[in-house]
Amino acid sequence: MRLPSLSRSWRFSDRVKLKMIRLASGRPPADILKILHYRREFFGEPFSAWVHQVLRGPSEWSIAERELMATFVSHLNQCRFCEGSHGAIVDATLGRELTAAVLADWRTAPLRPALRAALALLEPLTLRPGDVGPGLVEAAYAAGVTEQGVRDVVHICAIFCTINRVADAVDFAIPDDKGFQNDAYQLLKRGYAIG
Length: 195
Hints:
This protein is mostly helical. The chain has helices spanning about 10-25, 30-35, 45-55, 65-75, 80-95, 95-105, 115-125, 135-140, 145-170, 175-190. Helix 4 (about 65-75) crosses helix 9.
C-alpha cells in the first residue's frame, strides 16, 4: 500500500534535496530515499548510519561480499526492490554470473569457504531463526570467519530483514535495470549515509 504521506511530508530542506536528486538523475528519487527522509530523525538518520557502518565500515568482508549478503537476504525474503538494488552492486563488483549462481544455489556457487559459511548462517537466520544455534556459528569459525565477521553477518541480516519488510509494506516502486545500475553506481560512490 502506497502511503500518501510519503509523497509530501518532508522538511523543506529534504524536499529541496529530493528535488535536486530528481533534477540530477532525470527521474524521481527512489522510494528508499523518500522513506529515509520522512521523519528522518526517527528512522532515516539512525538507520542510514547503521547501514553505512555495517556495509561500508571496516570489516573482514569486502564491500562486494557484504552487498552479496544483503542481496541474498533480500532474495530469501522475496523483496524485489532490495534484491535488485543490492544485486546491481554485486553485478558491478563481482559480476552478474556470480550473483546469479549464488541466488540459484549458494551451496554450489564459486565462493571462498568463509563466504559460503556466512551464507550458510544467513539462510536459517533469515528464514528460520529458531534453528540458529552454536553449531552454525562454530561452522563459520571453522571456515575462517572471526567473531567480528559473524557479528557483521548478523547485522546485515537484521538490517535487511527490517528494510525488506518496510519496502514491501509501503510498496516501493521497482526500477528498471538501468535505474538499478544508476543507483548502484551512486551507492558505490557515496555509501549509505543520508547526512
